[in-house]
Amino acid sequence: MTGMGLCDRVADIIHAANADSRGMVKRLCREMPWMADFLQAEVVGPTSPKKPRGQANFLLQFLRGDAELSTEQLKEISVLVFLQDAGMCRTKADCRACALPMTIGVKDGVFVLRCSKCTGSLSMRNGTFLSGSRIDNRTFLWLFTHLCAWRNYTQASIATFTGLDKNTVSEWVTLVREVISVYLRNTPIVLGGHGEVGYADGVWIGTSQKYGRGDPNRGVKDKKGKRILLLVMAEQKSKRIQVRVIRSENKKEVHEILAQCFARGTEIQTDSAGCFLNLDKNTGADGDLMEFSGAMVNHSKGEFARWEAGHQISSNKGERMNGLLKRFLVKHNGFPLQTVMLALDEFIYHTNENDPAVCDLDKFISHIGKYSQASIDIDDAPGNSLYFS
Predict the structure, then answer these.
(1) pLDDT 10s digits, 18-55
(2) Which Pfam families does the annotation name (predicted)?
(3) DSSP β-ladder status, 103-107 and 197-204
(4) Cβ–Cβ < 8 Å for 239, 199
(5) Where are the domains positioned within the chain?
(6) At what angle do helices 361-371 and 3-14 cross, to 10 degrees?
(7) Judging by DSSP bridges, how do beta strands 197-204 and 121-123 pair with one another?
(8) Angle at which helices 21-28 and 71-85 pack, to 10 degrees?
(9) Which of 33, 85, 142, 186 is spaced 20 to 30 Å from 26 by Cα?
(10) Distance separating alpha carbons of residues 325 and 340, to the nearest angstrom
(11) Cα–Cα distance between 33 and 103 in angstroms, integer?
(12) How far is it, in rounded angstroms, from Cα 39 to Cα 132?
């Protein structure tokens, strides 16, 4: 999806009810206690009772043709239906005071769940990722739209466009990235497979250490002052990657990570670093050989690609992925470690979802809505970042 395509998608969301007002109201009210009676009345015909059980609110009156909705109300209904499908808007709840089913109404110009007996009301975003916020739904939609341009967005540009305070934008960006971290831990990925090719390479965050270039004192460091080294793994047939933090180029540690992230029988192409030696002897957690086949290129001899047994051996895709990762993280140089690691998770998520520069808005919001409520065992979850450690 391009930036223009994303804007068109947002326009479709906001104006959907203008094209099919009755259909959108039915979707929004599909869990209302009176909806089944109303649909049955439509099927039976005009001789059936026109008024279903319970109090008839303004949405029911609209469906019966007894009332009209304003343009702004239709726009809000369109956005609410979209958020409802994404798990960020609830349309079903019982009154806390009366224990009776609530229905959709309006309070102070905002759609809420209201009790038909008492004056009780409940936000339609209660218990979701958007719970407790005073930001209106359309502003949230535009906030997520900017986050979809994940390679290029800045918090300053989001604040300018939406009119939100920059600190508010920063907090929401952090919350979204935290949910992405939970998503990554709940959706494990295994790269490669028998006869398939994968790549592995190490990269320092925030500094260039190859061939003696760069300042060794720069770069992202952990709480003990040690620089952070990433092991980046990718597969040839897709854009999917795995990234792990390693403390050093320790052969045993690297081999254990490769056994976790690559499927048995994968050919792993690397550079000639010592930690990648003897991959054919690598064993998994069960003690059995992983049946890896290692293929190396020696950068110190000017070798970056070569042909062997009819196919190319190269670390170029791993190097290219490293370059994309470092360009994405460079704007976070000097930031706290946790902030950088959350940005790393954002990069991993969008890359593994096969997203180009602008990701799919529907899928992105659906993932955030679902996994913002997901539980996670932080101690045992294999992390892509240090945020939860």
Answers:
(1) 899 999 999 999 888 888 878 877 765 554 444 444 44
(2) DDE_Tnp_IS1595
(3) unpaired
(4) no
(5) 15-126, 197-358
(6) 70
(7) unpaired
(8) 50
(9) 142
(10) 11
(11) 8
(12) 34
